Amino acid sequence: MQTVSNFNFAGKKALVRVDFNVPLNERFEITDDTRIKATIPTIQKILSDGGSAILMSHLGRPKDGPTEKYSLKHLVTPLSLVFGVKVKFATDCIGEDATALAADLQPGEILLLENLRFYKEEEKGDEAFAQKLAKLGNVWVNDAFGTAHRAHASTAVMGKFFTDKVAGYVMQAELDNAKKILEYSERPFTAIMGGSKISDKILIIERLLDKVDNLIIGGGMTYTFSLAEGGKIGKSISEPDKVELAKSLIEKAKAKGVNLIMPVDNVCADDFNNNANRQTVSRGEIPDGWEGLDIGPESVKLFQDVIAKSKTILWNGPMGVFEFPNFAIGTNAIADAVVKATEENGAFSLIGGGDSASAVNNAGYGDRVSYVSTGGGALLEYMEGKTLPGVAALEA
């Protein structure tokens, strides 16, 4: 795979697939610019070589064509400040405006195209649409690892129309760090899996059982495991149809000698809101009408002890409903433990995108762990052993 590091962009118009799917508030202000900051080295390399950058991305999930809420024009001013140049904006990603602006683009300049998903052809992987996009530049750079698991026009299909196909620094770093975890992990290796559903994580859990020493389970999926052990979970989130699957995972962990660690206590509430009444109960003893929303203090201590002794740590998924401050204590404590293991014990820590990345970044820990992935779903699929279309297109 060719990378940005060994490609000279002098005189080139680089068509760069970035992941600028950033959260905006009601005033269209960016509330988390992690994904934008991640692309800075790739874009700066293109410009410093004497090339120009044509940036393309999606934003949100627009259903019926162009909408104000999902317009990338809201990113023009912040991007201009980040890169120190006036970013030009095309009111469409294909068509006359985009074609004219791309044709006039000079070395050192940046052009941002309007939201790719304003066209349904993008997500359908339409070849004709991909070819129209491809005509805007003469080298394709894919730096959007977060969408690499999608066979969309801009993330995969475009590769057919370029001789020069290059992986950006984000793409390269994501793959390198995932490989480090999967193939070169130092022992003890601990994986921390959170989130609400076993069904979302089943493949990654099964694969990790062949690689890890410790598997910590937190978040909503623990209540399905509690059901599998005959526990009471009140009205906690669960997947009753996955109880047999949970039982089989428990047995597989035993057979493979993996230390499967579950919460020993839970913080539960009588309603799903931050100010609900709370109580801490032992695992499997949640009263009727109550629901588990976080791990309890004894679980925090147990998990922290395992993490402190680890040399490789993979974390994907929160320990509870971390959006509510009163139920974010467990997630924040795990973030703190991972940081300590990294800084004080020299552990390699990979935060697997999505909610875990948000939790770590919101706590100000983003630069205190080894690597924070920008792609939750893509990272999980890569670790499950699946071929990512966006990566395969660069290797073809």
Protein model, in words:
This protein has helices spanning 34-48, 76-83, 96-104, 120-124, 127-134, 169-183, 198-208, 222-228, 243-256, 297-308, 329-345, 354-362, 376-383, 389-395, and strands at 13-17, 52-56, 88-90, 110-113, 139-142, 165-167, 189-193, 214-217, 232-233, 259-261, 265-269, 278-282, 285-286, 291-295, 312-316, 348-351, 371-372. The protein is of the alpha/beta class and 396 residues long. It has a six-stranded parallel sheet with strand order 3-4-2-1-5-6, sandwiched between helices. It has a six-stranded parallel sheet with strand order 10-8-7-15-16-17, sandwiched between helices. A three-stranded antiparallel sheet has the order 12-11-14. Strand 7, helix 7 and strand 8 form a beta-alpha-beta unit. Helix 8 packs across helix 9 and helix 10 (297-308) runs parallel beside helix 11 (329-345). The longest helix is centred in the C-terminal third of the chain and has 17 residues, at 329-345. 49% of the residues are buried.
